[in-house]
């Protein structure tokens, strides 16, 4: 992001429900375009200063995700604070991709320091790395959360999204070096699960209530079918938040985690999960590999790793 980028200061946390409605209203305009209107991301940073956390809301999030109730913010909860600011960038008129229909490919997060719920936070978000993909175009949404007083960086997340069927002249073509153009997947052989999740139809609505993400594809079969899904599906970040909670490292300072999403979790579902810890010869934790899959079809939903920063 250029140092000359425009900073847009938000007066209050953006409403995700309102942003989704705005996105729906502009979706028809995107469909009518023969080509995308722009070939670069906005030169703008959106900033929300002095954000405070509601303790009751935080506790509801922790309980839903089966996390230990504590005063420090879980890493996935910080994502819920940053996501509306990122969304406000993605609904700008000069954002080149249609918001509705974007596929969440992966997340990479660095959790630098413990974040007490009493700490006032500043959230900044911008878009970068518009790139070619064999199925369309990808973009990275970068969000940073810092102490509003000291400006210390506490948390940084990069979410990668794919706009299927949207191709830009001049970007890398499939098979010619595009970032995600020809990434091969290794065959998946399910390991012995360490947990089994039984997710009901209400899972999407429950997580929407604690995350604010009321994307219609998660709320009901009816609203999901209206957007081309066969039924509602669980939020990808619900799954990640639950894995982080079960790992015991969801609020740890000095950690990083990465997740790659492969197949959606259609509700209701039974999800098999594996978490495997690793240690060095001295017994120090060096990381936790995780993956989840459909217990019947053995199709993998996501996989990733949590590890100390600096490794």
Automatic annotation (TrEMBL):
It comes from the Bacteria. Residues 201-276 form the MaoC-like domain. It holds the Pfam family MaoC_dehydratas. Belongs to the enoyl-CoA hydratase/isomerase family. This is MaoC/PaaZ C-terminal domain-containing protein. The lineage of its organism: Bacteria, Bacillati, Actinomycetota, Actinomycetes, Micrococcales.
């Amino acid at each position: 992001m250029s140092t000359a980028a425009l900073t847009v200061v938000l007066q209050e946390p953006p409403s995700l429900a309102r942003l989704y409605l705005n996105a729906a209203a502009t979706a028809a305009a995107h469909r009518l375009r023969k080509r995308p209107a722009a070939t670069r991301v906005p030169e703008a940073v959106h900033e929300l200063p002095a954000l405070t956390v509601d303790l009751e809301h935080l506790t509801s999030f922790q309980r839903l995700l089966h996390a230990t109730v504590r005063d420090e913010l879980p890493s996935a909860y910080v994502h819920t604070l940053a996501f509306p600011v990122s969304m406000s960038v993605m609904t700008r008129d000069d954002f080149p991709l249609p918001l509705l229909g974007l596929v969440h490919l992966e997340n990479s997060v660095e959790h630098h320091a413990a974040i007490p719920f009493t700490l006032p936070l500043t959230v900044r978000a911008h878009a970068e790395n518009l790139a070619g993909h064999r199925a369309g175009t990808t973009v990275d949404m970068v969000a940073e959360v810092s102490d509003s007083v000291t400006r210390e960086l506490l948390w940084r997340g990069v979410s990668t999204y794919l706009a299927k069927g949207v191709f830009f002249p001049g970007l890398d073509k499939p098979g010619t070096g595009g970032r995600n153009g020809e990434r091969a997947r290794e065959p998946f052989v399910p390991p012995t699960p360490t947990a089994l999740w039984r997710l009901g139809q209400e899972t999407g609505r429950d997580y929407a209530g604690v995350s604010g993400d009321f994307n219609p594809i998660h709320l009901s079969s009816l609203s999901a079918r209206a957007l081309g899904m066969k039924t509602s599906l669980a939020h990808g970040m619900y799954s990640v938040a639950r894995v982080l909670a079960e790992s015991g490292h969801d609020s740890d300072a000095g950690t990083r985690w990465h997740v790659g999403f492969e197949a959606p979790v259609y509700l209701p579902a039974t999800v098999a999960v594996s978490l495997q810890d690793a240690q060095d010869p001295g017994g120090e934790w060096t990381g936790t590999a995780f993956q989840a899959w459909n217990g019947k079809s053995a199709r993998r939903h996501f996989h990733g790793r949590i590890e100390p920063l600096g490794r």
